[in-house]
Each structure stands twice: as structure tokens, then as C-alpha cells.
Amino acid sequence: MASFQYKIKAGETLYGISKRYDVAIEEICRLNRIKDANLIFKGQVLQIPSRQASGSRIASQLAGGRSKGPGEVIYGFQGAFPSPQELATRMAGFHRWAIFTMEHPVTELAQHRQYGAMPLAFGQPVYQHEQAFPALSYGRNGAATGALIHAAWPYYYRFLASYDPALSQIMAGQPLVPKSPAGGPSSFKAASSRAEMTFRHTRPGGNVLKVGTDRISTGKNLGRIIQGSSTRGTGQVVRIDPRVVKQGGGTFFSAREVLADLKKFEQATVRELDEASRGGRGQNHLDRLRKRLSAVNQSRTHVRSYGEGHGVNSIPAKSISPIKSLKAELYASRATQGLRFTGGVLVVYGAYESVDRIASAPAAQRPRVATQEAGAWAGGFAGAWAVGQVFAAGGAALGVATGPGAVVTGIIGGVVGGILGGIGGAMGADWVYARINDQ
Q1: What share of the chain is helix, strand, coil (3-state, %, to 5)?
Q2: Do the domain assignments include residue 291?
Q3: Residue 273's Cα: distance from chain center in Å?
Q4: H helical segments located in 133-254
Q5: Whole-angstrom distance, CA of residue 285 vs CA of residue 391
Q6: What's the pTM value of the predicted model, to 2 decimals?
Q7: What are the Cα distances from residue 233, in Å, to 63, 201, 217, 409, 427?
Q8: What's the burial of 238, exposed, middle or buried (CB within 10 Å: 0-12/13-18/19+)?
Q9: Are residues 215 and 109 in the same domain?
């Protein structure tokens, strides 16, 4: 009878060892010439007999037949291990499979990895390695997708200037408006383009008071704003939600849009300088255009540093909320950014795992595995987006329409939806595949 060695640990008994390996105490005693089953000691090496019945059952499983679905697992193999080629032949037709061994060290299974086998210790739960139906992997990928989609910090900030309404007035419904020579939002000289107005507002030295702009400056980089603006204006900082501005019919340009405007204005100035050079314009005119290009570069640096965004004409009061603690707000925004980065990393890793699972699956089952993976990703993305929206809407109905609470609500919904969508999408895709192929 085949056997394997086992080293007794502190506190173990022959009864426990026999139950673990489904072998009678009498057989262990006979094989090891033990007269008293109670007289064993820590560190003693025993020979544990293999169960022929179990080996026959497992061998018959390995010998043939097709799996019933992705949940089937081959739980073990006893006796001498076959060659990788022989093992692959025996396993033909099975979806995903793992090899457990009672007699061989885990390292001896490494040669079988290229044929889809996963080296596991005997009795180790297969779900930890996501071999049969990797629900944990699908759920994790869905959760990561939810974090990637919803762990975004959409808010901009503004230290109230001396000409801005007081915070109490804003909370009472008074909007923020641009600073202009006449004190109103419309008293400014019109620009030839949106890009020119953007440059006018961001140019070094601040707004040109003689012409004014239709913009209200805000910044996304709260840490930089605190560092550079805490001594300006009233010292009161407010949070601005661009989504609420747009939902109310207003206009808000993100930092990315502001940078795009500066790029357009720079290109227009380069063309103007080229035409002026070819047209023989005076040196003063050419120098003025070159200074403008230099100013555009300075503006771009400033916008990137602060993450500057612009409200146009006005920023409605309902999109503005006070901040109780700048430090807590800063930590919350950075934690959210970190969560989103983590989600992105896990999505990339999950994609790598998906490709690996498809590539390592038996050729006959590769289309089915690919279908599962596609279903998991599609379901994860759809679930993360949809449930995140539902949670966000529910939070808004309960009075959490903006601020950190709204972000947290969306993230929770996205993660929950991603998990359910990832697992459900894989199961649904597999069900459809099985029906189409009559499996």
C-alpha cells in the first residue's frame, strides 16, 4: 500500500490524524509498529497509508468524462504522478481544474503548470486560488471597477475674495459673480473667442481691470490653494460642485478645458506671429506677440499648479457649500484619489488575470472561459455604473447631494454594483454559452 510521511505536531493525536486523512488508527499503528496509540510525541515521523478507495474514485474522475460546468474541481490524485502530457490527456474536456496531492511536495507540481494545473497542498480550498469558477476574482474586479468609476473627487474650491458675497449671504442664495470694473457680471469688454477670455482671466498679474472677464476662479488642488491663498480675501473657503452648476443650466470649465483653451490661444498667437513676421510688421508688434506667448506659458503653469477651473457669468448658491475642516476635506480628497488609483491598478491586474485564465484553459474550454471573462467585465462595468448612480440618487433624495458624503455614497454603490455585476455577468454569460452549445 502506498504511503506518505507525516511529522507529528504539538498537541496532535493519532485519532485526529486518522480522521484528517480518513485512515483507521489500526492501519497507522500497524504500518508504524506502534503498540500504544496514546504514546506518540512531537516531531515523530509517521508513515500514513493512502486510501485505495479514495484513490480509485479520484482516478476514475481523472480518467474520463466531461465536466458539468465551471464549478467542477478535481479534488486530488494519489499514487505516482503522471507526466504532464499524460495528465493533460486525462484532463481533456474539463473546464478548469486543480491538482491536490497527499504524497508529493507542492514544488513537484510546478512542471504541470503549463498544462493548467495549479500546485496546491492536499485539502487546501480551491476557491482561494480561483481555479474552478473564480467568483472572488470577478467580484474583486467589479469592486475595482466601481472604485475606478466613482472614486472621483469632482469639487473645486474658492477662498472668498473681499468683493465676493459673505458666506452667510451665499448660504441665503446669493451667487458668486465675476469681478468687473462696474461691479457686475456683464461689465467687461467682449473677447474675440472663449480662448482669449480664458487667457485674459489667467494671465500673469491677474485680471486686467479695464476690460474685466466673465469668469470666477476656482481651484481643484485644495492643498495648493490652502498654501497659496489662505491669507487672501476673507479667509473663508467654499466648496463648489461643477455638476450642480451644469445641472442648473450654468457653465463651468474644468482645469482640463481651461488648459485646452490656453493651447488654442497659444496656437492662434503663433500663427499671428508667423504672419506678422512674413508681413514685415514692426519690431514692437512682434515683441508684443512674443511676450504674449511667454505669458501663455506662465498662465499654463499657474492653472496646472492650482487645478484652476472657471465658473462663467455666475456660480449659483445651490452649488456652493461651506467646509467645516480644511484638513479633513484635504485628507478625504487624497484618500479618494488613492482609492481610485488602487482601483485602476487592480483593474489592470484583473485584465492580466483574465488573459492568463483564457490562455491557460484547455483548448476545448477556452471559448467558454473567454465568454465568462467578457461577461464578468461587462457586468462589472454596467453594475458599477448603474448601482453607483442609484446610490447617488438615493443619497441626494436623503439630502446628501454634494460633498464628501455624496462621493462616499457613490463609491459604495459602485463597489456593490461592481461585485454583483461581475459575478452575475460571468454566471449569466456562462449560462448562455452552455445553452447555445448544449452543455
Answers
A1: 55, 10, 35
A2: yes
A3: 46
A4: 135-150, 167-171, 194-202, 222-229, 242-247
A5: 58
A6: 0.63
A7: 81, 18, 13, 33, 58
A8: buried
A9: no
Assess if residue 283 is contained within a domain: yes
Rounded-to-integer distance, Cα 147 and Cα 389, Å: 13
Counted domains in the chain: 3
Lowest mean pLDDT segment, chosen from 208-217, 328-337, 393-402, 424-433: 208-217
- Is 284 found in the same domain as 199? yes
CA-closest candidate to residue 428, choices 378, 361, 354: 378
245 within domain boundaries: no
Identify whether 246 is part of a domain.
no
Q: Are 275 and 223 found together in one domain?
A: yes
Q: Measure the CA–CA gap between 268 and 428, rounded to whole angstroms.
A: 54
CATH number for position 14: 3.10.350.10
Per the CB < 8 A criterion, the answer to whether 270 and 293 are in contact is: yes
- The predicted-structure confidence for 90-141, as pLDDT tens digits, reads as follows 444 443 344 443 333 333 333 344 334 443 333 333 332 333 457 778 888 9
* Residue 142 to residue 146: CA distance in whole angstroms: 6
Rounded mean pLDDT, 147-168: 89
Among 65, 61, 63, 84, residue whose Cα is nearest residue 74: 61
Residue found under cell 488648459: 259
Q: What is the pLDDT of residues 19-67, one digit of tens each?
A: 777 778 888 888 898 988 888 888 899 888 764 333 333 333 333 333 3
The verdict on 139 and 216 lying in the same domain is: no
Residue 47 near residue 3, CB atoms below 8 Å: yes
In terms of domains, do 28 and 74 share one?
yes
Same structural domain, 185 and 305 = yes
User: What dihedral angle (degrees, nearest 10) is formed by the CA atoms of 390, 395, 401, 403?
Assistant: -110
Residue 356: give the domain boundaries: 135-151+326-436
Q: Are residues 146 and 167 in the same domain?
A: no
